[in-house]
Design brief:
Blueprint: E1 3-7, E2 10-13, E3 18-25, E4 32-39, E5 46-51, E6 57-59, E7 67-71, E8 77-82, E9 91-99, E10 113-114, E11 118-123
Parallel strand pairs: 2-11
Antiparallel strand pairs: 1-3, 3-8, 4-5, 4-9, 5-6, 7-8, 9-10, 9-11
Length: about 120
């Protein structure tokens, strides 16, 4: 069983930066494929970024070049560094963990464990 707790959300102006963290307990994150997802009001949950056990990263087109996913060396914290934030990035951000064998790393259905989410609000 993996427990995930996100932190680092907040309110920023467009062009600002935030770093989200996801603390894991119950397992080392490096044994799972990890992902960040977001959900805006009235919209479906969508992928933001993912990182596999061999540290291959994948990003949604909307965040490429602005967001970076990473893990700490101990395999206990997942990060999402966000630069040049836009109002369209406003959403609740979730981290998730799933089996390292998953094929579709940007599909929410591939993930088994989810955090409770942290709110990110970007004003224009």
């Amino acid at each position: 069983q993996v427990q995930l707790v996100e932190s680092g959300g907040g309110s920023v102006q467009a062009g600002g930066s935030l770093r989200l963290s996801c603390a894991a307990s119950g397992a080392r994150l490096i044994t799972y494929t990890m992902g960040w997802f977001r959900q805006a009001p009235g919209k479906e949950r969508e992928a933001v970024a993912a990182i596999t056990v061999n540290e291959r990263t994948s990003y949604a087109d909307s965040v490429k070049g602005r967001f970076t996913i990473s893990q700490d060396n101990a395999g206990k914290i997942l990060y999402l560094q966000m630069f040049n934030l836009e109002p369209e990035d406003t959403a609740v951000y979730y981290c998730a963990a799933g089996p390292w064998t998953m094929r579709w790393v940007l599909s929410p259905a591939s993930y088994k464990y989810w955090g409770q989410g942290t709110q990110v609000t970007v004003s224009s």
